[in-house]
User: What shape does this take?
Amino acid sequence: MAKRERSIPEEDKETRRGDKEKGFRIRDFGFRIWPRWREAAEHSKQLETHQTESPITDHGPLTTDKSEIPIPKSEIRGHSALRTPHSSKVITADRAAALAADYRAGGHRVVFTNGCFDLLHVGHLATLEAAAAQGDVLFVGVNSDSSVRRLKGAGRPIISERDRALLLAGLECIDHVVIFSEDTPSDLIQRIGPTVLVKGGSYRHEEVAGREIVEARGGKAVIVEDLPGVSTTRIVSSIRKQIPVCSDVGCEPRPVP
Assistant: This one.
């Protein structure tokens, strides 16, 4: 008995033909990227070997030979193998002071800014990017939980100091993050010794904490205006207005003042 051929609808033939062609394209793509993958693997292996000889930071090797200038930031941005892991950007005040000294010795312009950064928003980002544009290396001081509580009152911070620091460390424009417990960053500024001190907000020049320390060393203070209508306080207030008022008899919308 002759074998009966199974008829395949025309639309199914087109689908299978497309899948087959797609398979060839995927395999072809794999052959194309294989040399690049192998090259990247070799580069990573060489980097690990080099790291055992000279530690690499986000700005290149920090060597004891001051005549050896670290790799400029502009040359290493975008190379994922050289990026500092986010958690390693969060450092102590002692480490920050040592790094800042190395950066200055290498001819880098050190910038410092600070804040609570509770509920990171676009206004914070604008200020931080403006601060980074003022120099080569950006240190950011973050108020500790106890410091924020004293400055902002009960119920703040909303996000813990460690989480706030890690969120900031995830931003490419920031090189180092330091948590401080004082109400002002003056002591930290004294230790880091930045060339430029940046502050966001509607401050007057004489109101910027640590300004006199920086200017006494020949540096300057720069004030960056906040984006209008954007602040953590406004965001928190907006969220709270949307939370309904509940009782034993049910919930109803919170009255808007």
In short: Confidence is low (pLDDT under 50) at residues 22-37, 47-71, 75-83.
